[in-house]
Amino acid sequence: MAPTRKSKTNQPPSPSRTLILDNGAYTIKAGYVAGDAVDEPRVIPNCIARDRNKKIYIASDISKCPDFSEVAFRRPVEKGFIVNWEAEKEIWEHEFFDEKAPQPCDPSETRLILTEPSNSLPILQTNCDQIVFEEFGFASYYRGIGPSLNAYHDVQGILRTPRDPGTLAQLPAEILLLIDTGYSHTTVTPLLRGRPIHPAIRRLDVGGKLLTNYLTRLLSLRHYDMRNETYIVNEMKEAACYVSLDYKGDHERTWKGTRGERRETYLNGGGIAKDYVLPDFHTITKGIIRDFDPLRASKARKLAGESTEDVLTLRNERFCVPELLFHPSDIGMRQPGIADLVMQSLHVLPVGLWPGLLANIVVVGGNSLFEGFVERLQKEIVQLAPDECFVRVARPVDPITSTWLGGANLAKHENINTLSVAKQEYEEFGAAWVARKFSTGLEL
Amino acid sequence: MNNFGVVELASTKTTNAPGWAYVPDTTPHLAAAAAAASLQTGNRKRAARNQAANTSALYADADARQEAKLRREIEALDRDNYHRDVSIPIVAKSTSSKAAVKKHTPNVRKILQSQKTFANHLDDFEALLAQEKSNPNAASSAGAASAAVAATPVVKQEEDTPMTDAPQDAPTEPSSSTTVSTLLTPYSRPDYPPSHPQDADPLLVSRVPPLPTDAELRALLAAPPLSYTEARGRWTAEDDGRRYPARVFCEVCGYWGRVRCMRCGARVCALECLETHREECVTRYGL
Ligand SMILES: [Zn+2]
Ligand SMILES: [Zn+2]
Questions:
Q1: What is the H or E stretch that residue A227 is in?
Q2: Stretch B99-118: mean pLDDT, rounded?
Q3: Cβ of A198 and B148 within 8 Å?
Q4: Residues of the signal sequence (chain A) (predicted)?
């Protein structure tokens, strides 16, 4: 067994400051907790970008980029895991360790809480632990799966359970089914008292990246060649896409009709069509979404020469793209949609846990921000769940920073002292011991 | 041209339709694949070959190739930059910088120099698992981490995982009423929406399955993680084709793909999109 107890006695006191890094493939959420003081987390692009003039931007520097057309990205995180440490180190140094770093950190006096996705590869975990201790030299460190940190929230508050005012939330939450739908993928994680039930964790390989690329493909086939415009298309996706609550009906409302005919709903937009003004990075730096204007084409002709706006009319692209989260088979992926993924997860568990899990579903991650996402998911799970189960799906106020905030709550919770590893322990017992300790987690 | 799309083939099943036909959904993903393929500049030859496979006699063959094409297309959607392979080098820092002077440990140097992708690491890992499976006595040279994983009982994810298939053979029979869980509070329906008068009906109450015992819960929580591949959600045999009836879409406009181009198998919604598609189909593949 791990000599945890013995080593604790000659450990230095825990660092007073904790850096929490929710190290996502698309963005890092980063901030400090010191005592009861909790930072507002920064959301940092986790990439090195290069613009069309070959200028390089590291992480948060990208906000200085004047023109996002044809920007290319290098991302150290692949499938949710830190794979390329050369690039990740560059980004971390830029944000935390360089002289001019915006969130300066002295690792020798800091505890690090770092997220990872579930079902990692041992080699990637070992690489991570070695870098944290041998390269950066953090005094104390905990690496754990991101979804678990969401148990360190007032989950009943998120779910709006009626209760006496002033009720103190029990942390970690007793029972929670956490759905995390991010850039790389979507996962379902059942949690009991903050501990994941590993055999029931399921992953769907559809995330924000795939959706953006799919929208890129559709637009390039139907409108303009957008294949080098990942940044612009991503903005468009975030502004214009939604999850349909009436998929067939929305298709009818956006179809032009057979030959010659133009359906009424097509001509007036059917309440779905939107015009999207593409940024030109001179007068327009960010795309603008507008209600569909049936007369735009003729107006533009009148203004010929004056109007330089590039406008796309988005119709079924608005709802066919996020639909892949619920119907990956629409592009030929042989994977179940999110609602079925939830049921596959439950089927590994004793039925006695189902009512509690189904009544406490929380969704986090950027894709949960699509309009209609929560409603559709709730509707589909209700259809699949046993009739006597009460299904509740909720999204925290900020689903992007929810995992980070959970991490901040963990940093203040006594559990972190059991979970984390001191640098001396790493030096004394080695990387394999550390990996075992993290995978064991909290005992009940 | 007048016999658009119909190529002389050895099959007697060739339909001499004027280039299109209403067809049953037998090859679900042709439209998606064909649409995708038209963006793949490198695949014209293959696409040209595929177009010969547009009669039902050759669907099986076409399906296999479409399947492969589809896989490539899904992989293309997985890239960080849709259209390009991007190599953005890390610019060496000026020597005045503290970090540049710093010496790395051998471990760190090795990690920083690695150019392996996730797929490389996954291949390595699965090769190691296979090796350890075939040679269980060999002490793992790859360290404790992989050994721990090798010892992981592989939770079967076959079709129809029974719900009692919890790890460690934890019995999921209803626990007797005397063993009350101390780990979880018994489930009570949240008081939202307002409770129904019949909620207290013993017949209904009894239908709420009892919580697992503490021992069962501990066993569940102690179970190790699945591997990356095992955790992937997948269709069960029962799902295949039933729960996910193929939805096919018009390659041109994205509406339902109710019409098939007899030349290349692409799906379109109706005549207008078929005409648009034909222009593409002709200019792209010649004729
Ligand atoms: Zn069409
Ligand atoms: Zn065709």
A1: none
A2: 88
A3: no
A4: none
**What gap in Å lies between CA A345 and CA A198, rounded to an integer?**
10
Are residues A319 and A241 in contact, defined by beta-carbon separation less than 8 angstroms? yes
pLDDT above 90: percentage of residues in chain A: 87
Min Cα–Cα distance to chain B from A276, Å = 18
Structure tokens at A208: 């924000």
pLDDT band for A10, please (50, 70, 90 cuts): low
Written as one letter, the residue type at B43 is N
Q: Which of A262, A321, A257 is nearest to A297 (CA)?
A: A262
Interface touch B112/A89, C-beta < 8 Å: yes
User: Is B182 touching A (CB cutoff 8 A)?
Assistant: no
**Number of residues that this document lists for chain A:** 444
User: Residue A77: closest CA among chain B residues belongs to which residue?
Assistant: B118
Q: How many CB atoms lie within 10 A of CB A6?
A: 8
Is the bond into B193 cis (omega within 30 degrees of 0)?
Answer: yes
A202-204 vs A42-45, strand pairing mode: unpaired
CB A392 within 8 A of CB A150: no
Structure tokens at A368: 């949960």
How close is the nearest chain B Cα to the Cα of A61, in Å? 15
Quick one: tokens of A1? 């067994």
Q: Give the ipTM.
A: 0.93
Q: Which two tokens stand for residue B224?
A: 């190790």
Q: What is the number of the ligand closest to the CA of B252?
A: 1
Q: Which site among B90, B94, B109 would you substitute to test the A interface, given the most A Cβ atoms closer than 10 Å to its Cβ?
A: B90
Confidence of residue A43 (pLDDT cuts 50, 70, 90): very high
Q: What is the pLDDT of residue B201?
A: 57
